Amino acid sequence: MASQRDKKLVVIQLSGGNDCLDTVVPYSNGLYYDFRSTVHIAPDAVLPINDQFGFHPSMGAIKNLWDEGRVAIINGIGYPNPNRSHFRSLDIWHTAEPAKIGTEGWLGRVIRELDPKGENVLTGINFGRGLPRALGLRGVPVASVGNLDTYGLFPDLQDEALKQSALATFTKMYGGAAGRDVVFDYLGQTGADVLKGADILRQAPAQYASTVSYPDNPVAHNLKAIAQVLLADIGTRIYYTTHASFDTHSGELPTHAQLWEHVDSSVGSFMDDLKLHNRLDDTVIYIFSEFGRRVKDNGSGSDHGSGGVAFVIGDSVKGGMYGEYPSLEEKDQLEGDLHFNNDFRCTYATLLEQWMGLESAPIVNGHFEQFDFLKPAAA
User: Fold this and answer.
1) Is the dihedral of CA 32, 38, 40, 44 positive or negative?
2) Looking at the domain assignment, is residue 376 inside a domain?
3) Are residues 301 and 330 in the same domain?
4) Domain boundary residue among 176, 201, 226?
5) 220 and 322 share one domain
6) Residue 137 domain-assigned?
7) Which of 376, 314, 373, 326 has the alpha carbon at shortest distance from 349?
8) In a domain, 130, yes or no
9) Are β-strands 24-25 and 308-313 bridged in parallel, bridged antiparallel, or unpaired?
């Protein structure tokens, strides 16, 4: 099991392509308002970062964390030859392979490094339906929890004897008989991992006690579940969840405001929970999206672009702006998009080496310059 001092990484994926221009707003730049005649944030509405940039008005909790020096803003994050397909771009971020189709999730590799013998089936957990490719790696167990209170096999069976009978049947079908093919072997191992993980995870909600109130939205539910598991000290190091949909082609202003209100208030509650339990120093949050949006709006929303923004949040973070905010000058744009100026694998490498204590090159497929957004480890 992990100790309280083991470093935890919480990843929040903003699916759909978050509009970075309306997230970290260049409110003193006239070009922003020239290109964004409709889909913009007024100067008097932003939450000022400095005299040039400000947060979206729905990001009050993150603004407070920024004021406390606990937020790193990674401007201009992306990768060479950006792809505007949701599926391909996410695949690139998930596998750290911009030039070819990757088969291994970068966090799957992290989990394998943290637990090479697969002794803890809960080293990495996705909170939500399905399994993001970032966590996928053959032979590496990862739990995917839709609802922490009912996680496991056959949770709808209320009769305990019936449930045990069903589990016994499942075990016989998929469990370890000689001569099974690889599919049955895989299903058998997956089933065994779910059984083992469910038994351990049932402890988390029962052990959790907090005076912190979380808002009622999907990402808040998942972050509360993450807090419950993290505080149970069952050895989980990687936590992943997704919030959607930031694909704001139309009706962006109210939609984007609500999406960020959900993320922001949930992150605020999660940080308050960690503070209440004295766990702020061993947890870092990483928030990213697969790409940004076009520089010019389309009258109601904004279309797929590049040159995004990411956030790293925590007590161990050196707050500040990292990477260069991309130029809005037309001559500097990439076919109407913001130009990236730092590879997302620089951020990955920083988190891996300076936070998780892992060699980054085998995980992110190369050597990349690192940022200094993390405080030195205490002696």
Assistant:
1) positive
2) no
3) yes
4) 201
5) yes
6) yes
7) 373
8) yes
9) unpaired
Structural domains of the chain, count: 2
CATH number for the domain spanning 262: value is 3.40.720.10
- Round to whole Å and give the CA distance between 35 and 64: 29
Q: Which domain holds residue 40?
A: 8-151+203-364
DSSP codes joined into one string, 251-288: SHHHHHHHHHHHHHHHHHHHHHHHHHTT-GGGEEEEEE
Q: Does an H or E element contain 72, and which?
A: strand 71-78
d(CA 12, CA 243) in angstroms, rounded, equals 7
Residues 79 and 170 in one domain: no
Q: Nearest CA to 148 among 95, 214, 104?
A: 214
What does each of the 379 residues of the chain score in pLDDT, given as a tens digit?
444 479 999 999 999 999 999 999 999 999 999 999 999 999 999 999 999 999 999 999 999 999 999 999 999 999 999 998 999 999 999 999 999 999 899 999 999 999 999 889 899 999 998 889 999 998 898 988 988 877 754 454 455 555 455 555 555 554 555 544 544 444 444 445 555 667 788 888 889 999 999 999 999 999 999 999 999 999 999 999 999 999 999 999 999 999 999 999 999 999 999 999 999 999 999 999 999 999 999 999 999 999 999 999 999 999 999 999 999 999 999 999 999 999 999 999 999 999 999 999 999 999 999 999 999 875 4
Please give the angle made by the CA atoms of 99, 322 and 56, to the nearest 5 degrees.
100
**Residues paired with residue 310 on neighbouring β-strands, in sequence order:** 74
Note the Cα 122 to chain centre separation in Å. Answer: 17
